[in-house]
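explain this chain.
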Amino acid sequence: ADIPGGVVNTAVAQGMDPMGTTVTSPPDDGVTQFSGTPALTVVKSADLAEITMAGDVITYSFEVTNTGNVTVDNVSITDAGPSFGGAAGTNSLQGLSCPLTTLAPTESTTCTATYTVSQADFDNAIAGDSSAMNIAIANGTPPVGPPVMSIPDTLDIPVVPFDSISIVKTAGLPTISSGANSTVVDAGDMITYTYLITNAGTTNLTDVSVSDAGPTFMSVPGTNVLSAITCNIDELAPGESTSCTATY
């Protein structure tokens, strides 16, 4: 508190002459000027070592330290949120706050914020540099002079994709041909095959299709050709499924 503006100290000398009269000198000032040097640093970290899927929630921590020699008020963080593969995040940083907004010299506080990764963010990262990157700056107000800003601190979190697709095939009861046995498959019966395809990974899949050479009978390939396999959709988001069908 003493540092801004320096310290002024006034002294007066007094004495008593032979007549018993007090003699007082004019006051004299001693002025000590201090150099006020406001400074802040910020170190940014996250609770996730890597991002593995859309829906991951990143908790960011910002450790702000007063490395100057004057108290700094109005401590805050400037952070636009992460970018993914060079593209701005589709969500906003949430709950950015600092438990202390006034820091004495050498004092620190840890601010926090969260970010929820969208599927678009994840896909942008994979299409780019496979990382989530953002920059944080600490700000504050010293007792005198302009606001102070820290050197920016950059944090990169790797984005790690996982590709997987699954299929479950079922065969419906054959369509019974005229005069055929109703309990077994006879010549002329039609079997409808259904294929449930699911995106079991973390990235979007396109050009979804099914390969099927058709049934075999006692290890002998069928003499007819499986019909064209048709699917409801050919693009699947993570966790999404589609149904395809064919007949023989």
